[in-house]
């Protein structure tokens, strides 16, 4: 089965037909041994040689067409993983902290925030935590423990980082592809709700993370301390340079961000701000138009592509939005017509980086129902468009887990559904495990 799938990925046919095996099976049906020997010589040595010759010519033709449909490489793919803070490698130039401040003191700068934990829980099992589940505990001060109450809340700073990345794509007019936020959704901030100190209630005081003891009870087996998310996006400072050209309007200036000495496979995005009027991507450079002649504090995002560098302690899987390349995909991308068939839909799903986690099991078309609550997708910040989702028929996609019980399975389903929703406007896409 593995060989068949490999052939389907690289060629046109989903399951390549083995003529040699088929002929051997049919030859066994001939009872007379002399006739079987004669038939084998005629069919395998004669017809078989012709078939092999034709197959080779078709492969050469396929390769020629395949190369003609060669698309421009995607230089804006994202990859996310998680590591323990102590294992972060600053020399690794392919993976960077989503929030650089995570490498410092936990909870710094936000009232009541004492730290952040990572929960190895499925999406549905994590619902109580997203709704603000509370736990008892203690706060240690001057050698004494005082009772305290703590609340968990999904870390909003990572959601904000994804929203800002989307805005950068919009500012640079680069098509948006769903970012797999499965890891980011598992980070929860721990807030001190109230504590008892010297016999009186006190609110708003933020003790150090090491001075807090939280009683997670049965949930402690899912709690991981000291983890931080990394992605392949590096923030680069962009300042005024000598490459400044006055525009014809006499008001604005064009500033250049040169790409000549940078890795060609990487993607670059200029983060928009109130001073930037226009961003243009040209060969070997990015041109930014602004009324500012001199500036500083602007930012460029580098999306590192290719093989992610491995560092000691980086053992968690990489979750990305890469799409597998194939002949059919290139042909479909270059075609003006899109056939909405189950084969085409299956192809789109299996092109996503989910094969280690999910198998496609089937689909259903259902009438819309206002009673069923909509599950939040990974593109929560996108507007619904002209026609509301509630009025569309439901395309329910069914998946089967390759690793039953794995805590990211439901999030991988949500990733697939979120990306397909960008491509399919006539249905409201949903997913389920079977």
Summarize the structure.
The chain is α+β, with helices and mostly antiparallel strands and 434 residues long. Helices cover 24% and strands 29% of the residues. Mean pLDDT is 82; it is low at 1-14 and 198-202.
How would you describe the overall organization of this protein?
It is built from eight helices and 21 strands. With 434 residues, the chain is of the alpha+beta class. The longest helix is centred in the N-terminal third of the chain and has 36 residues, at 33-68. Helix 2 (19-27) runs antiparallel to helix 3. The protein has helices spanning 2-10, 19-27, 33-68, 127-130, 156-171, 327-333, 342-351, 409-423, and strands at 79-84, 96-97, 113-119, 134-141, 144-154, 187-197, 200-202, 212-214, 223-225, 227-231, 233-238, 244-246, 253-258, 267-270, 276-282, 285-290, 298-303, 319-320, 358-366, 393-401, 427-433.
Low-confidence stretches are 1-14, 198-202
* Class by SSE composition: alpha+beta
Overall pLDDT score: 82
Order of helices and strands: HHHEEEHEEHEEEEEEEEEEEEEHHEEHE
Q: Work out the strand percent.
A: 25-35%
Largest sheet data:
7 strands, antiparallel
End-to-end gap: 22 Å
Query: Percent helix among the residues?
Result: 10-25%
Please give the count of helices. 8
Number of strands: 21
Task: Evaluate the radius of gyration.
Answer: 28 Å
Oligomer: single chain
The dominant shape is: globular
Topology, pairings included?
Blueprint: H1 2-10, H2 19-27, H3 33-68, E1 79-84, E2 96-97, E3 113-119, H4 127-130, E4 134-141, E5 144-154, H5 156-171, E6 187-197, E7 200-202, E8 212-214, E9 223-225, E10 227-231, E11 233-238, E12 244-246, E13 253-258, E14 267-270, E15 276-282, E16 285-290, E17 298-303, E18 319-320, H6 327-333, H7 342-351, E19 358-366, E20 393-401, H8 409-423, E21 427-433
